[in-house]
UniProtKB/TrEMBL annotation:
InterPro entries given in the database record: Chromo-like_dom_sf, Chromo_domain, SH3_Tf2-1
Protein name: Pol protein
Domain Tf2-1-like SH3-like, first and last residues per copy: 58-123
Domain Chromo: 147-193
Organism for this UniProt entry: Sesamum angustifolium
Length: 195
């Protein structure tokens, strides 16, 4: 059986050499036009939301920190974690889209070059600065949290055992700020509470 008769058996249209090439070229052109139109559409959408960011050496910027799991976090976790930290000074431009920042010693484990998308301009505003009053602390003074009273008792049940708990109100705190503590530890440390 010849190749042309096999094509006919399978229900495919038999094309001769130049016709096949011409039809294939037309389909390729249609696909290219569709791809170009889709790319242009996506580019115009992205360009509406894109802002050109360019910084100078000496500018101060905030550094975006990642909210995703498994990536270094700064301080709090979850919804309350900061989205940006800083401000940090730009000390060098490493190309059109990367900058080196002057990071503090506690961030020394982090690479100090960042893509422009990770930065946000810092605009100095004196009204945003909160001045804390200076507190003088005498070195002879100490502050110890002491339990004031036991408000409630409970038993915490685990798989194999039960742990007696006590709800303790601490001195200088309201009953709303009471904490649950293990009774055994409280008996050892503060036996006068249980007399």
């Amino acid at each position: 059986m010849s190749q042309s008769s096999m094509l006919g058996c399978e229900g495919l249209r038999q094309l001769e050499g130049p016709e096949l090439v011409q039809e294939t070229m037309e389909k390729i052109q249609i696909v290219k036009k569709c791809l170009k139109a889709a790319q242009d559409r996506q580019k115009s959408y992205v360009d509406k939301h894109r802002r050109e960011m360019e910084y100078e050496v000496g500018d101060k910027v905030f550094l975006k920190v990642s909210p995703w799991k498994g990536i270094l976090r700064f301080g709090k976790q979850g919804k309350l974690s900061p989205r940006y930290i800083g401000p940090y000074e730009i000390i060098e431009r490493i190309g059109p889209l990367a900058y080196r920042l002057a990071l503090p010693a506690e961030l020394s484990l982090i690479h100090d070059v960042f893509h422009v998308s990770m930065l946000r301009r810092y605009r100095s505003d004196p009204s945003h600065v909160i001045r804390e009053p200076e507190v003088e602390i005498s070195e002879e003074l100490t502050y110890m949290e002491e339990p004031a009273e036991i408000l409630d008792r409970s038993v915490r049940k685990l798989r194999n055992k039960e742990i007696p708990m006590v709800k303790v109100r601490w001195t200088h705190h309201s009953p709303r700020e009471a904490t649950w503590e293990v009774e055994e530890h409280m008996r050892e440390k503060y036996p006068y509470l249980f007399q």
